[in-house]
Amino acid sequence: GNDCRFGVVAREWLEKSDAGDAKATYAAASAKFRGAMTPEQWAKALTSARGPYGAVKARTLAASQPAQVAPNLPEGAYVVLLYRTNFANRDAAETVTVERESDGVWRIVGYSIR
Question: What is the rounded (10 degree) CA torsion for 17, 18, 19, 20?
Fold first, then answer.
């Protein structure tokens, strides 16, 4: 089944973001994500979002929820994954939204940390 493929995709993407690899995370994101900002804008956003937290010590998937709608996005086939993450400087909740695009591949369409 392709059902838990999105979980693998999300985790691989998060590992690239942990490494500060803006280029790889942008390349692995959906067309909607890439259409919303340039690679340069994403690099700045990633650095400012993740910088204060420090290195990742542990990350646990807390919940995953299929969704037809997601914040600021048109209707589609989404899964929203919530991670509880222990960073060097503080703990946080990370939300990764993945989308199954028309080619059948799951790609990241949204990321937030708080």
Answer: 50
C-alpha dihedral (53, 17, 12, 4), degrees to nearest 10 = 70
In angstroms, the CA 18 to CA 86 distance is 12
Could you tell me the pTM of the whole model?
0.92
- 110, 73 contact by CB (below 8 A): yes
Tokens of 63: 């919940």
In angstroms, the CA 35 to CA 56 distance is 28
Question: What is the percentage of the chain residues whose pLDDT exceeds 90?
Answer: 87
Q: Amino acid letter at 41?
A: Q
Residue 95 tokens, joined: 């939300």
